[in-house]
Specification:
alpha+beta; Beta-Lactamase; Heat Shock Protein 90; five-stranded mixed sheet; 14 strands; 47% helix; elongated
């Protein structure tokens, strides 16, 4: 016997054979049980149709607002009748929680009670189908509760009824056409199967099942291999994709996020906004699971229609990019800008002294400038091994002079090596924010009090950082809340993050922060960070 390998057939052929075989079998069985089959199918389809219409009306704002109102029928009856005539159903009845009708094909029954025991479960917030002998004959009826206030309170019920033909009526209707329909059904079934197979194959881009499975596996592998977290939602705001990186950042590594609403997972996610506006949001910062991330959100479009949105995000804490954004690269650029500004002023001063023929004064001024710059540069270069920290302190030194303040760096300041639990970017955040806050605190003080003192000591057990200013100080009752995210005494947006990050990085390193009042006013921040994780308290 000749054996045919099933893999020889393409997907189109398999679908055509399967569809035609199914149609043929259905026609044979239908010929035997035609009356019962048609009756059951008609009743089922009518029930689904009635349920769909009832659900649509139950969500109508006009119906929800007017149920229970004295003249509610004036608004509800026309809506129900228009829907009834447009859909071809036999009757649409809207009742309140007391069972009083607000619509009915027979207007005399409006305002009267709906006397039917089937209404009871619907008034108890249940939707269902039932078969009964109604006012206009035997029917299948759909009962759907009408709820307001985002589905928390029921105010009534919509009942949609479709008449069901009797067995005798069905027999009289199909008796003369039964055999003709069976024959035509086979021909139409064959042609329909071929057409369906072609359409399905076309919708699948002419790919075979094995090719589709391979593409799906590749897509999943690509998503999981990405270093960025990826979350996608559909037009109903439900998550369709969430890779392992996204789950890890969200703290839900063991959970299946697919099918959940995005706001259930990320309460303040802007993804629904992107879904509505269709506008991309690139490189926005936010906190997820107490982690700083950089997020990009873009809409997903298909044939010009928005069908979803995708968010990609990176853990900026892991790669210290937030540190560079806050006080790293920008701090160095600011330092260069300040130095350029200062050098211009100094050159103008020297030029003026030369024009006045004050050559001795000009030389003395140049020597003083060179000595000061060499002293601070030599101190930082000699005592601090990390170029980023040295550059930051030099930039803050020049920044203080631009603000007409003075940053005094302790001559014993040193940094031989970083604690094992601290990275350069973390220390940049800590030192940069503390000094910048201190400069802000003294900028409105008198000239003789515009001073900030910085020292850093490095010993085998711990790294100690001290920043003291002569500003107005911090009240005792505020010394805890200043580290809260978003807290700021400046009363403007995009602030309140600096000290929060300082506290976060110190805690991650197992260190401690103390705040004390200075002997001559102002405030003193002292940070102790252990050299080894084992020294954490």
């Amino acid at each position: 016997m000749l054996k045919i390998n099933p893999k020889f057939y393409t997907l189109r052929t398999k679908i055509a054979i399967l569809s035609f075989g199914s149609v043929f079998l259905a026609i044979i069985i239908g010929g035997i049980f035609v009356v019962e089959k048609i009756s059951t199918t008609f009743e089922k389809e009518s029930g689904m149709r009635a349920m769909a219409i009832a659900r649509t009306l139950a969500q109508s704002d006009e119906i929800q607002k007017n149920i229970g109102e004295p003249d509610g029928a004036v608004t509800i009856q026309p809506i129900a009748e228009r829907t009834r005539l447009a859909t071809g159903v036999e009757y649409i009845v809207v009742v309140d929680m007391e069972g009083i009708r607000y619509s009915h094909p027979v207007e005399d029954r409006i305002g009267k009670r709906f006397a039917d025991l089937d209404l009871g479960p619907a008034l108890a917030n249940n939707e269902y189908l039932s078969s009964a002998e109604g006012v206009l004959g035997p029917s299948v009826r759909a009962f759907v509760p009408v709820k307001v206030e985002e589905g928390t309170r029921q105010v009534g019920v919509v009942v949609v009824g479709i008449l069901i033909p009797t067995i005798g009526f069905l027999l009289r209707t199909i008796q003369t056409q039964l055999y003709y329909s069976l024959g035509m059904g086979l021909i139409v079934g064959l042609l329909g199967s071929l057409y369906l197979a072609r359409k399905i194959k076309s919708a699948m881009f002419s790919l075979e099942p094995e090719e589709i499975a391979r593409l799906l596996e590749e897509r999943v592998a690509v998503f999981q291999a990405m270093s960025e977290g990826v979350i996608a939602i559909d037009r109903d705001r439900r998550i369709t994709i969430a890779n392992d990186v996204a789950k890890r950042i969200l703290g839900k590594a063991c959970d299946d996020l697919t099918g959940h609403e995005i706001t259930d997972i990320i309460p303040y996610s802007p993804l629904p906004e992107v879904l509505q506006t269709g506008e991309a949001q690139i490189n926005h910062q936010m906190f997820l699971n107490d982690t700083v991330v950089l997020v990009s959100r873009v809409p997903v479009q298909f044939k010009g229609e928005i069908i979803g949105a995708v968010a990609t995000f990176q853990d900026k804490t892991d790669v210290n990019r937030l540190a560079e954004e806050l006080t790293g690269v920008k701090a160095f650029i600011e330092a260069l800008r300040v130095q350029n500004h200062e050098h211009k002023n100094k050159l103008h001063t020297i030029a003026g002294l030369i024009q006045l023929e004050k050559y001795d004064h000009a030389l003395d001024y140049i020597f003083d400038l060179a000595e000061e710059q060499q002293e601070i540069t030599g101190l930082l270069t000699k005592n601090i091994f990390d170029d980023s920290i040295a550059g930051l302190l030099l930039g803050k030194f020049d920044r203080a002079k631009e603000l007409r303040a003075e940053l005094k760096i302790d001559r014993k300041t040193c940094l031989k090596e970083l604690p094992s639990c601290l990275q350069t970017g973390d220390l940049v955040v800590i030192i940069g924010n503390l000094i910048e806050n201190a400069l802000d605190a003294v900028r409105l003080e008198e000239l003789n009090r515009r001073k900030v003192f910085f020292s850093m000591s490095d010993n085998p057990e711990r790294l100690t950082i001290t920043v003291r200013d002569l500003g107005p100080g911090i009240p005792i009752d505020m010394r805890e809340i200043i580290f809260s995210r978003g807290f700021s005494t400046k009363g403007s947006v995009n602030r309140g993050l600096g000290l929060y990050l300082v506290k976060r990085y110190v805690n991650l390193a197992g260190g401690s922060i103390s705040i004390q009042s200075g002997e001559d006013g102002g405030i003193v921040f002292r940070i102790n960070i252990p050299k080894e994780q084992g020294n954490q308290k």
